[in-house]
Amino acid sequence: MDLTKDYPRSVRDKFAGIVQLGRATDKGRAKLAGTIGEYHYNCPMDKAVFEFLGIDHEAYLAKIGSGDDAVVEAYAREFTSKKTQAELDEWSENFLNYAPEPGSDGEKYFLELRGQVAPDRTDVVTWADLLDLDEKRPVPQRVAA
Fold first, then answer.
1. Which of 48, 59, 60, 69 is the most buried (most CB within 10 A)?
2. Is 85 exposed, middle or buried (0-12, 13-18, 19+ CB in 10 A)?
3. Per-residue pLDDT at 143
4. How far, in Å, CA of 38 to CA of 16, rounded?
């Protein structure tokens, strides 16, 4: 995976039954290849999914280096299988709807990025939508908050 030429999977793409994990996998694969570019493996979004599942990011990175997506997904399922489908779905939904706290430094950063990526898209208020826009994925127009 060369993230200097391509994008990782969308935050929304499920891997082993949960969002964000496929994206973290792509970033890990690129890190190991030395082609991660501007991306970061084990960023706060990766940390969130690793923490929820109880995955050690170093062990996960080692697993990424040992095989293809089928091998990595089988490993990840050892952790997702400890959660109910309802827990996975709820976590995924909350993760996809996560927005920065109003008035926070995080919101200032988010608004700055949104202004660079799509200044006309004031309807975009979640990190998942902003990342998809930044990576040229379609994001449905919503009623602005």
1. 60
2. exposed
3. 76
4. 25
